[in-house]
Automatic annotation (TrEMBL):
Identification of the protein by name: Uncharacterized protein
Alphabetized PANTHER family for the sequence: MEDIATOR OF RNA POLYMERASE II TRANSCRIPTION SUBUNIT, OS01G0121600 PROTEIN
Protein's UniProt keywords contain Transmembrane helix: yes
Keyword flag Transmembrane helix: yes
Record key words, sorted: Membrane, Transmembrane, Transmembrane helix
TM regions (residue ranges): 124-156
Domain of life of the organism encoding this protein: Eukaryota
Length: 162
């Protein structure tokens, strides 16, 4: 939508707040599109300079970059393997086996089931359950803490009297 530059302020207001112009953000109406950042501009020039079939050459640069890319992929894969080994070093053997085999898919499946359950209920019920859980977990923690402190108080009182 082109903005006429010769409109008086009252007509400009009417022009800007027409129902058809309210469908777009005001920023897109008033401001020109932002220029490309230098990195994207250079990348587009580099892609054009590599060329295709008709512009000749440039294939060597692509081959060199593919070698570098493969080397970086191998480095990242080895870092991931070492990270996984370092993280699971203190785990029990069955935990390491489960983590390596199906842990990720089981977590994704559980989250998917939770998502399906929440999407199939009314929004007010889902929010209510979320609020109840968010309030209930800390409340249960406080109750457990109070009970432990009471038990420790009784034990210490029994030690002093005995």
């Amino acid at each position: 939508m082109e903005l006429p530059s010769t409109l008086p302020p009252s007509d400009l207001r009417r022009h800007l707040f027409r129902p058809s112009s309210l469908r777009l953000p005001l920023r897109s109406i008033l401001l020109p599109p932002p220029p490309l950042p230098p990195s994207k501009l250079l990348a587009s020039k580099r892609i054009r300079s590599i060329g295709g079939r008709g512009e000749g050459g440039g294939g060597g640069l692509v081959d060199e970059n593919m070698v570098v890319l493969r080397r970086r992929i191998r480095e990242l894969q080895s870092e991931e393997e070492n990270f996984c080994d370092d993280r699971t070093a203190g785990w029990m053997e069955w935990e390491q086996r489960y983590y390596g085999s199906s842990y990720g898919s089981d977590v994704c499946e559980a989250v998917g089931l939770l998502q399906a359950l929440l999407l199939s209920t009314r929004p007010a019920i889902a929010v209510g359950v979320g609020v109840a859980v968010a309030a209930g977990v800390p409340a249960a923690g406080v109750i457990i803490f109070v009970q432990i402190v009471g038990a420790l108080g009784s034990i210490l009182q029994g030690i002093h009297l005995g």
